[in-house]
Amino acid sequence: MRAAVVNAPEAIPVCADFPDLEPWPGRRPLRLVGAGLHHVVRALASGRHYGSEQAYPLVPGVDAVARTGGGRLVYTGLARSPWGTMAEWLATPFEVDVPAGADPFAVAAGMNPAMSGWMALAGRREEAGELGTVLVLGATGLSGSLAVRAALSLGAKRVIAAGRDPEALERLCGLGAVTVALADAAPGAWTAALGAAVAEAQPALVLDFVWGPVAEAAFAVLATPGAGDGSAAIDYVQIGSLAGAEVALPAALLRSRRIRISGSGVGSVSKAQMIGRLPGILARFADGTFDAPYRVYPLSRVGEAWAHQGRARAVIVPD
Predict the structure, then answer these.
(1) How confident is the model at residue 106 (pLDDT cuts 50, 70, 90)?
(2) pLDDT value at position 48?
(3) Strand 96-97 and strand 30-36: pairing?
(4) SUPFAM superfamilies annotated for this entry (predicted)?
(5) Full domain range(s) for residue 126
(6) 183 vs 284, more confident
(7) How far apart are CA 146 and CA 289, in angstroms?
(8) Residue 230 domain-assigned?
(9) Which residue, 86, 98, 223, 304, is most buried by CB atoms nearer than 10 A?
């Protein structure tokens, strides 16, 4: 079958013939409609991601929108290595119907970014019964902006969106979020800006898509005396690390607050939980709560797609 093929770590994929996939027991192969080229796809294919098996050649791709033999449009993923989702045919262990009204390419582009925040938000609401105030760090990227929209749609009392892009912050403000600009400022200024934003209500949940010095600024705010009720629990969820892979964690924060620091990624949520929460995300794409800009590339141009940059997410489709 024709597929995008990565032949070595850090290699640019090429369109080539790849051995036919091994079907999952009792499941028929699906025909590709569109597979999103997400940050995690590049990281896994290059061998830099903690989940990479570092076995080559491989077909990249973690999820996709596909067509069943009966014509149903479905969202799917979790393909078995070395077969990813950027191929003419897919063999996967699950499929969830894409609802009417949802743009299949927007779903392909946006489901993976949306899942990162949604899983943490849904988990917090199931555990605590409500979301309270939510702080999103890195709110102007695709994942972060979808997390802001998700928090608002799930009933958060207050959503604080912190990020670098002023135009994106303006759009999020229009949706009802309190915005904090982190562009062109030193970490000390970030701490002051975040401190002012959380003064009215300490966040019950922090979704961190950037980590690094931005996280350290948030830690300084959360550890400040008078920054809310010290008895109130805080869930701090680390999701991405675009600003840095490591942080300095102050001991005072751990001693002065009931804070739980965890991660959201491969392995942090069971497959059954993840699949069970997918219909809620898909429904938001159908009703217009979520959207994701995209640019379509055929398999024969996967090398161009790999180099694609900008707000729109590359989506690989069959030729």
Answers:
(1) very high
(2) 80
(3) unpaired
(4) GroES-like, NAD(P)-binding Rossmann-fold domains
(5) 114-263
(6) 284
(7) 9
(8) yes
(9) 86
pLDDT category, 228, cuts 50, 70, 90?
A: low
Q: Are 249 and 86 in contact (CB under 8 A)?
A: no
In the block, tokens 């940050």 appear at 39
Same domain, 66 and 144: no
Same-domain status, 161 and 259: yes
In percent, the amount of the chain with pLDDT more than 90 equals 74
Q: Residue 16's Cα: distance from chain center in Å?
A: 29
118 and 95 in a single domain? The answer is no
Contact 133, 156 (CB under 8 A): yes
Q: Among all chains, which residue has been given the structure tokens 């997410």?
A: 313
Question: In this structure, what DSSP letter does residue 98 have?
Answer: P
Q: For residue 230, is pLDDT > 70?
A: no
Q: Hey, how many other C-beta atoms are within 10 angstroms of the C-beta on 42?
A: 16
Q: 59 near 82, Cβ under 8 Å? A: yes
Whether the CB-CB separation of 205 and 121 falls below 8 Å is answered with yes
Domain final residue, candidates 223, 248, 263: 263
281 in a structural domain: no
Q: Which pLDDT does position 218 carry in this prediction?
A: 94
- Distance from C-alpha of 183 to C-alpha of 7, rounded to nearest angstrom: 38
pLDDT digits (tens, 9 = 90+) for 63-97: 999 999 999 999 999 999 999 999 999 999 999 99
Is the pLDDT reported for residue 189 higher than 90? no
Residue 239 corresponds to which tokens in the numbers above? Answer: 């999701």
Across residues 208-219, what is the average pLDDT?
94
Please give the C-alpha separations between residue 86 and each of 108, 168, 285, in angstroms, as whole numbers: 11, 30, 22
The verdict on residue 303 lying in a domain is yes
**C-alpha distance across the termini of the chain, in Å:** 12
Same domain? 89 vs 34: yes
